[in-house]
Design a protein that fits this description.
heterodimer; A: mainly beta; five-stranded antiparallel β-sheet; B: mainly beta
Chain lengths: 109, 112
């Protein structure tokens, strides 16, 4: 079983829509949680870290539920420029990151 | 700062050839790592280093060697290329104790 699981999508949504991505992780000892964004044929870039208290950055809101080992990302008022693959990432210990396979989002006019 | 740089951007090899993928960072980061990304597989850790002279294996180390003689550079060597090593390779770095990792632009490798 993969350590980090996410729905690959694709999610096709119109501009202005709200879209939510979910992710589950298997290792209860996981310490840090992130969402990365990857544009087509580009490197992954950190979108935001995820905390148990929840955190928001503009139109993006991330939540962590340690009891359920579940991470979410909510994007409000989707823009065309939000089209990308969103990677759920978990750090168990040390510096190595465990990546989910990614969820593809396409925002259409 | 140039950040994390990788060369070459693209490479085609024949089975059995060897080559070195270069990775350099100018941010004085202690931690550096190599990942490979295959369609439908996500990124997988190959090797990592927590400082000059210290390296360790990740999830998929077979067929690859690394060394870390300086803080700045972390080359990845393919000893005898195989078609299964066709992939996109990303190098990443971070400060010790930081959760933020910075990725290079990637090297797209094809092994025929």
């Amino acid at each position: 079983r993969k350590e980090v699981e996410q729905d690959p999508g694709p999610f096709n949504v119109p501009e202005g829509a709200t879209v939510a991505f979910n992710c589950t992780y298997s290792n209860s000892a996981s310490q840090s949680f992130f969402w990365y964004r990857q544009d087509c044929r580009k490197e992954p870039k950190l979108l935001m870290s995820v905390y148990s208290s929840g955190n928001e950055d503009g139109r993006f809101t991330a939540q962590l539920n340690r009891a359920s080992q579940y991470i979410s990302l909510l994007i409000r008022d989707s823009k065309l420029s939000d089209s990308a693959t969103y990677l759920c990432v978990v750090r168990v210990g040390g510096y190595a990151l465990n990546f989910g396979k990614g969820t593809s989002l396409l925002v259409t006019p | 700062n140039a950040g994390v740089t990788q060369t070459p951007k693209f490479q085609v090899l024949k089975t059995g050839q060897s080559m070195t993928l270069q990775c350099a960072q100018d941010m004085n980061h202690e931690y550096m790592s190599w990942y490979r990304q295959d369609p439908g597989m996500g990124l997988r850790l190959i090797h990592y280093s927590v400082g000059a002279g210290i390296t360790d294996q990740g999830e998929v180390p077979n067929g690859y060697n690394v060394s870390r003689s300086t803080t700045e550079d972390f080359p990845l060597r393919l000893l005898s290329a195989a078609p299964s090593q066709t992939s996109v390779y990303f190098c990443a770095s971070s400060y010790s104790g930081s959760d933020t990792q910075y990725f290079g632009p990637g090297t797209r490798l094809t092994v025929l």
